[in-house]
Design a protein that fits this description.
single chain, about 550 residues, alpha/beta, five-stranded mixed beta sheet, five-stranded antiparallel beta sheet, 18 helices
Length: about 550
């Protein structure tokens, strides 16, 4: 209970506040009596000290030292019977008590002895604790009943608003608004939201409730903020209450505490329902991909809830986080369970981020997980669907995902299928495409599946043999300057990629057609061949094709 509540009891009716009146809002948990000079070593936070000042009669300045230490210990205050031994409280003590808001209470007029005051105060505190416990149980039951009846978090916030008559705000762990009271419909209170978000941005995740103070931008006045973190198996956000002055009793905080507990229970329930639904979905797609569903009828029946129909076309994607998952250095490492929970939390966050960004493409899709991969089943409804356009959209999406969240992912894409039982084939193709991209030491890539493409054959040839073939093929350019060599080889590469089309080559290089002709003529002179000779052109095409493998092999050698 608060100190001002305790001294409002009839027992303290004849007491007098002689200093530190502003500190009467300090909490009182216990009461103690001073009977030794070293009493400070036996005091605890939230303790009110009763004394007659006998040990300080000859040295009143000791009171200043005692008060400073009690304030550091966060004691509630000091109640003194100064007239018992004619103790004079120095003015310096009174001034310091007023400065640090440390209550000093004159209890000489109180008719009871210090022992009786201790006993009765303890009884009052225990009664108050009992009342608080009963109140907490009542409030918890009220909110829990709402949840059992099917009410959600918005209804809890409304009920909490009625109980406290204060603006209430619920923020997610990302400081996004989850729910808010009706007060924020008033434009003048909107700046409070931004002020609260700015305040929380500068704080680490709070593990316990906190009382803070901020300036209301609209009124240029102080607002007291009661902050209660919401937890499930992870930190979910904050329940925040704004008030113009500090609460006069613990009931305000108790109400918020019970509301935050019940909100955490509701979020846990939602997560359990969501996790069960996601588990069923993952099991279905795992069975479909692994071939445990043998009939099309069974696949369509189980997949109906995910949008699968007899007539359809689908495309499978496999996504993976590029870097290996590492735990932050500030994570608790004393238990294995905490590590597991953190890994689950990070994977859930990755799932939600990928799903949210993928949805911006405008495609109809279903997302699932299989082992350490994220799978996306994309529904192809448009007969004019173009893979090239889709690939460009995916490239832009992965870039935005990385820029906005720091999450780097790569994707493998299987071939479109029209039979529901072939979805597993498309997914396996997507996984193979993803593996090919990683084998080439690439990150944040989009790799389409190509069955046994030429690079697959090249990877079967030793690196040294590929390097020797590449060097011998382009040895004819070794006599030219490095800049000219790069220019000629780039022109030649684009010329072969465009099927020896001069106009298309000039477009891709952004140079005039005559410039292309000049460069190609110079290549023929250096190479001593005709560029369109089938055998020679194949040799140079192969040399250009193995360059990515050589770069990947060079990078791999550097890391050994």
């Amino acid at each position: 209970m608060l100190l001002e509540q305790l001294i409002s009891n009839a027992m303290f009716s004849k007491s007098r506040i002689i200093a530190g009146r502003s500190g009467l809002t300090r909490a009182v948990h216990t009461v103690n009596i001073m009977d030794a000079p070293d009493i400070i070593h036996f005091l605890r936070p939230g303790e009110l000290l009763l004394t007659n000042g006998y040990f300080m009669k000859e040295k009143p300045e000791l009171l200043l030292e005692l008060m400073a230490k009690m304030n550091q210990l966060k004691c509630s205050g000091l109640a003194v019977k100064t007239k018992r031994f004619a103790l004079e409280i120095p003015q310096a003590v009174i001034d310091e008590a007023n400065r640090i808001d440390f209550p000093i209470i004159e209890i000489s007029a109180v008719e009871h002895s210090l022992g009786e005051i201790l006993q009765r105060s303890t009884s009052v505190i225990l009664d108050n604790k009992n009342d608080e416990l009963q109140y907490s149980l009542t409030i918890h039951k009220q909110f829990s009943t709402m949840i059992m009846k099917g009410d959600g978090i918005p209804e809890i916030i409304n009920a909490l608003t009625q109980l406290l008559d204060s603006p209430i705000l619920l923020l997610s762990s990302k400081l996004q608004i989850t729910a808010q009271s009706r007060h924020f419909k008033q434009p003048r209170l909107q700046p409070l939201i931004a002020a609260a978000e700015a305040m929380l941005c500068g704080l680490p995740n709070l593990q316990a409730s906190a009382q803070l103070c901020l300036i209301d931008p609209a009124l240029n006045e102080y607002r007291y903020v009661e902050l209660y973190p919401i937890f499930t198996y992870r930190h979910e956000g904050y329940l925040i209450a704004f008030q113009p002055k500090q609460a006069a009793s613990n009931q305000y905080g108790l109400t918020l505490e019970q509301a935050s507990n019940v909100i955490g229970m509701e979020i846990t329930k939602r997560q359990a329902v969501k996790e069960r639904s996601r588990r069923y979905k993952n099991e279905f797609f795992s069975d479909l991909i692994d071939g445990f569903i043998s009939s099309e009828q069974e696949a369509l029946h189980r997949g109906k809830k995910y949008g699968l129909k007899p007539q359809g076309a689908w495309l499978l994607l496999a996504a993976r986080k590029d870097e290996s998952t590492t735990l932050p250095s500030d994570m608790p490492k004393n238990t294995a369970s905490s590590s597991d929970e953190r890994l689950i939390s990070e994977r859930d966050l990755q799932y939600e981020l990928i799903k949210r960004h993928f949805a911006t493409l405008g495609e109809v899709f279903v997302m699932f997980t299989k082992n350490d991969l994220f799978g996306m089943l994309v529904f192809i409804h448009n007969k004019e669907w173009e893979e090239g356009v889709f690939l460009r959209q995916l490239t832009l999406m992965t870039a935005q995902l990385y820029e906005q969240t720091g999450l780097s992912i790569s994707l493998g894409i299987g071939k479109p299928v029209t039979n529901v039982l072939d979805i597993g084939l498309s997914y396996n193709e997507a996984v193979k495409a993803l593996q090919i991209g990683y084998q080439m030491k690439k990150t944040r890539f989009i790799q389409s599946y190509q069955s046994k493409d030429i690079s697959y054959l090249f990877r079967m040839i030793p690196y040294d043999e590929l390097k020797q073939f590449h060097e011998e093929t382009f040895h004819c350019f070794s006599g030219t300057e490095e800049s000219e060599q790069k220019e000629l080889m780039r022109t030649l590469n684009v010329f072969y990629d465009t099927q020896c089309q001069l106009v298309e080559t000039s477009k891709q290089l952004f140079v005039h057609r005559n410039t292309v002709i000049y460069r190609l003529d110079k290549c023929e002179k250096l190479m001593g061949i005709k560029l369109k000779d089938p055998v020679e052109s194949l040799r140079f095409r192969i040399a250009f094709a193995i360059e990515p493998l050589l770069r990947a092999g060079k990078g791999e050698s550097a890391h050994r």
